[in-house]
Design a protein that fits this description.
Blueprint (H helix, E strand, L loop, with lengths): L9 E4 L5 H11 L3 E3 L16 E6 L6 H6 L6 E5 L3 E2 L4 E5 L9 E3 L5 H4 L1 E4 L4 E2 L5 E4 L4 E5 L5 E10 L3 H9 L16 H17 L5 E4 L7 E4 L5 E5 L9 H11 L6 H4 L13 H27 L3 E5 L21 E6 L2 H8 L6 E6 L14 H16 L6 E3 L4 H5 L4 H19 L10 E5 L23 H10 L5 E5 L1 H6 L5 E8 L14 H12 L3 E6 L3 E4 L2 E3 L2 H4 L1 E3 L36 E3 L4 E7 L2 E9 L2 E6 L6 H14 L3 H4 L2 E3 L4 E6 L4 E6 L5 E7 L2 E8 L4 E5 L5
Helix pairs in contact: 5-8, 9-10, 10-12, 13-17
Enzyme class: transferase
EC number: 2.4.1.211
Pfam family, one: LBP_C
Length: 724
């Protein structure tokens, strides 16, 4: 084994009352960087500790004096009222009903008639401005209504409490901290003020090496209700990136008049699950263009003072889309983000245009985890098991932790667990030496409406949080995050233009009508013909849940001929279906016991002449393969993440690509184990993804090389070439 790195690649949080403890842990863990966090401060005694010093820098808050003296330049958000049914010819709608009045305040400084919109939700038409008025005294909009029609009001509100500060305030039970206002750096006076303030800060903090922007200008949509609960959270949401100043610029750039409906989107707020409209796509591009340009001005200031500029992929990150076409123009040195699993790790580690990437591993050192009944060690182990397999495929350059170091230091055994993680992380880098892991000789394409702009973000509501409606789909990209495939995220427009010849397998996963499945795109003959041609000529297609779903011309799955399955909606109940299972297949060779399809999909039946049903639920199907011309398809009713399902998907991809033999070039037999090979350094990593001991056989070039007895969570390193 190569000499393992003993220190470096690690950032630790600290605080003013943790000087000696920080120095001890810095030595024990080999940390080469120290950071402050929201609610902590960097001790002066550690500025000369020899570590790289990170300072959290807030461009939009922590300056209430400025915000209070410039109320017109406080951040704003588009809100939509409750739906209210009229019972007469006049209707009053209370705008702030259900919203938290300490967070949001109706904007009456700018003309409601110009920037608000009253919608008749029964007809889908806007109500003319002369048919409604705003009663500022009562906070209500008064509408000339049609009896029994439903109405909403879309309106602008000032964010008078920064959403992240509010979240931290509530989560950590802060009592005395003043509510932090949030100001809009895009506005002219605040723009100049913030730039000059950053210059002064850089001058006054010569010992800071890295300015960690949290983030730049616009908070993702995080709206609280009147009980201080989260009301609407959209990690990808643009609803809080608006103001009349910005929207007037957008109108000039786009060449058409802006409507609030482009943002509130019937009350869905353009959830990432929605198929994005042309207008919303335009707004996203405009914001990315403008945000990247202004962010570059701040980064340039940091560089003038000889410091590095780091961006946190979270909080106020809207407009800094890391896979957008303007991101590289910012000139950042690094990106750091929270690592919740393999998917969120790849979301960070795949970023181009920066010198290095860094991940904040979980758990955060917060009292909601480090408390009686909490399991921070278990959370750390689970987090590392998911992150490690992705790191072996696309490594972060650095890792770190955040929160209150005192909590971690006082929890028995937790620091020992962190040391094991850090040692393995350095071990991975020592053995790979910056080289790329072996990947299969073909690419896998994930087809949805967002493509590469939402790389490793598919089917997520909010950054690694579990939801019943999504776990059966997120499992697909979580499995892929640690697999030996180059993955491309492609759009339907790219399919229209022509499928990349390096892609041998296309995956479409999601519920009907969502951006992930594709909705009405499947009514486009160009799309369905392109996919049929691709598979007919030898390609592979994998569908999960409701792929190609759109009720049209007598079919629910528009690629039912390719998939060999369709879904019974009741329309074809009179057509008999004679489905029988035959589970003897390459895809199931390693699989023992029941298969977890998650929520799955009901009433899936096989049809055609070339299908084979591998798994059934009663008389309906859950796993089906189909031959289509020279190509193959695989259908899963759902695919949550688990080691067994990783193996299922691995085999399904190689099968669909007609590359079964290639799978055993480097292979391990136990589904709880995985293999990564670095051919340039001659190293093999075998990982045990279980917290229990496992035995596995290692295959190299299709032949058994070794039998391994692996300890819980162990990583074993071997040489690619056997040595005498």
């Amino acid at each position: 084994m190569m000499n393992m790195e003993k220190k470096g690649r690690l950032t630790l949080p600290t605080d003013v009352d943790m000087v000696e403890e920080t120095m001890r842990l810095q030595e024990l863990l080999g940390a080469d960087a120290l950071r402050d966090c929201d609610g902590t401060a960097m001790p002066d005694a550690l500025l000369q500790s020899g570590a790289k010093i990170y300072a959290t820098y807030y461009t939009t808050r922590k300056d209430n004096e400025w915000a209070e003296s410039h109320p017109e330049e406080i951040q704003q958000e588009y809100l939509i009222s409750d739906r209210v049914t009229a019972r007469g010819k006049s209707l009053r709608i209370e705008l702030m009903k259900g919203f938290h009045r300490e967070q949001l305040k109706v904007n009456t400084l700018d003309s409601p008639k110009r920037w608000w919109e009253v919608m008749d939700r029964t007809t889908g038409e806007p109500v003319p401005t002369e048919q409604w008025e705003y009663d500022e005294e009562t906070g209500e909009v008064v509408i000339e209504s049609i009896p029994y029609h439903q109405y909403t009001v879309s309106f602008l509100a000032f964010l008078i409490w920064d959403p992240v500060h509010m979240y931290n305030f509530i989560t950590n039970d802060w009592k005395d901290a003043p509510h932090q206002l949030t100001y809009d750096v895009r506005q002219p006076k605040t723009r100049e003020y913030v730039k000059n303030k950053l210059k002064r800060w850089c001058q006054e903090n010569p010992d800071v090496n890295v300015v960690r922007f949290t983030t730049f200008f616009h908070q993702f949509t995080l709206t609280f209700d009147d009980k201080k609960r989260e009301k609407f959270v959209e990690w990808f949401g643009y609803s809080a990136s608006v103001s009349p100043y910005i929207l007037e610029q957008f109108e000039k750039w786009a060449g058409y008049k802006f409507r609030p409906e482009y943002i509130v989107d019937q009350g869905y707020h353009n959830s990432i699950f929605r198929v994005p409209s042309r207008e919303f796509r335009d707004f996203i591009e405009f914001q990315q263009r403008e945000v990247s340009s202004l962010a570059k001005e701040l980064v340039d200031i940091v560089h003038e003072y000889g410091k590095e500029a780091m961006m946190f992929l979270g909080d106020h990150w809207i407009g800094t889309e890391p896979f957008g076409k303007y991101f590289a123009n910012i000139g950042l040195d690094a990106v750091v983000g929270s690592v919740g699993d393999g998917v969120t790790l790849r979301m960070i580690s795949d970023i181009k245009g920066v010198k290095y990437t860094e991940g904040r591993l979980l758990p955060y050192f917060f009292p909601d985890v480090f408390t009686e009944g909490g399991d921070p060690i278990g959370e750390a182990q689970e987090n590392w098991l998911k992150a490690r397999r992705a790191i072996l495929r696309s490594p972060l350059d650095r890792i770190g932790y955040g929160g209150y170091l005192k909590l971690a230091n006082e929890w028995p055994g937790f620091i020992d667990q962190i040391k094991r993680v850090v040692d393995e992380f350095r071990q991975i880098h020592a053995n790979m030496q910056g080289t790329k892991a072996y990947t299969a000789p073909f690419k896998v394409g994930i087809l949805n409406c967002w493509g590469n702009l939402r790389r490793w973000m598919a089917n997520q509501v909010h950054h690694a949080l579990w939801y019943r409606e999504i776990y059966s789909y997120v499992g697909v990209i979580e499995c892929l995050s640690g697999m030996p495939f180059d993955v491309e995220f492609i759009t339907f427009d790219q399919v229209r233009e022509g499928i990349d010849p390096d892609i041998r397998v296309i995956i479409n996963a999601g519920d009907v009508g969502t951006s992930w499945s594709g909705a009405e795109n499947w009514m486009d003959e160009t799309i369905v013909c392109a996919i049929r041609r691709f598979v007919d000529q030898g390609g592979g297609f994998i569908g999960v849940g409701e792929p190609s779903a759109c009720q049209y011309q007598g079919r629910y799955f528009q690629l039912s001929d390719v998939l060999g399955v369709d879904r019974e909606l009741g329309f074809s109940m009179s057509t008999d279906k004679y489905n029988e299972m035959d589970s003897s297949h390459f895809i199931l060779e390693d699989i023992e016991g029941e298969i977890d399809f998650g929520e799955g999909k009901s009433r899936i039946y096989a049809q055609g002449e070339n299908y084979q049903i591998l798994n059934m639920d009663g008389k309906y199907s859950r796993l089906v393969v189909n031959q289509y011309g020279e190509g193959r398809s695989v259908y899963f009713a759902g695919l949550p993440y688990s080691p067994q399902n990783c193996r299922l998907l691995l085999r399904a991809i190689y099968y669909a690509a007609h590359q079964e033999a290639e799978m055993r070039k480097f292979y391990v037999s136990n589904v709880d184990t995985e293999i990564t090979v670095f051919e340039e350094t001659g190293k093999i990593a075998v990982i045990n993804n279980s917290r229990e001991p496992r035995q596995t056989d290692l295959y190299v070039q299709g032949e058994i090389r070794a039998h391994l007895d692996m300890a819980p969570m162990e990583i074993v390193w071997l040489d690619v070439e056997e040595r005498e």
